Amino acid sequence: MSELDAEDREKLKDSQYAFPKERKEPIEDASHVRNAIARFDQVEGVSDKERDEAWDRIKKAAKKFGVEVHEKSWRELGKKK
Prior knowledge:
The protein is 41% helix and 7% strand. The protein is mainly α.
């Protein structure tokens, strides 16, 4: 995954984050989308509504960058199938 330094993170638009208000979990490329999915449950201080909205942004970015997402909801993350 490409590392973002503080300056790079500042340049990102709010819309390039799964959680724009908190500016957490950048989703500007495939690698960061995969990371946002993996770290999704580590984001603290957000409501379920914000998680729903973040998950929608992640799915949209995943489609854009060709990242396969099997879960329909963030609530399915980490559950065995």
